């Protein structure tokens, strides 16, 4: 998948994705449609005179794809990491890190199988290295694409990962789901139009100095912020 590499990937990644995709060929009852509750179910953020509305509406799968195609030098999703950290009781300076976008680059890649795209925004929060992924898929569950990354960063076993995947599929939009390691959280986001959009917050590797409550609250606050940036 281009620059998005999972250490220990290859067969391991394929097995994880295959196991999960086999159990979720479509969205659940609350996820088969994803309008923003305002009756706008849908142009995926397209339209000439609607840039302001698109910037304030929930993300669409198409919008995530456009961001991934040209992410720029700052996170194209309108996250305020410093503000979310303060609200979660996390102290320390916040520095922006590298930003990358990923589009499908092989027919058998997870993004290709789910017709999706993702944006990876890096930060430094105090002494912690943070990665904030935003992923949108037209088919299946957005969190499923990032399960290999979740397993690597959380350091959890396959059985724990599959249990986490099942709970992530059943989670309500806006509900932060923490891994047993306490350093990774996923949130299904409101979505404009069809498909599924989610964020995955990963802090450190296998562990973090933050409490489970802080990680959960940080992910929840970030999920509430998730919108596209207005064009400059």
Could you characterize what this model shows?
This protein is α+β, with helices and mostly antiparallel strands. 33% of the residues lie in helices and 20% in strands. The protein has helices at 11-21, 51-56, 61-69, 81-87, 110-114, 142-145, 147-154, 158-170, 212-225; strands at 94-102, 116-125, 128-137, 176-178, 184-189, 196-203. Strands 1-2-3-6-5-4 form a six-stranded antiparallel β-sheet, with helices on both faces. Strand 5 and strand 6 (196-203) form a beta hairpin. Helix 4 (81-87) crosses helix 9 (212-225). Mean pLDDT is 82; it is low at 7-12 and 23-54.
Q: Topology, please?
A:
Elements: H1 11-21, H2 51-56, H3 61-69, H4 81-87, E1 94-102, H5 110-114, E2 116-125, E3 128-137, H6 142-145, H7 147-154, H8 158-170, E4 176-178, E5 184-189, E6 196-203, H9 212-225
Antiparallel strand pairs: 1-2, 2-3, 3-6, 4-5, 5-6
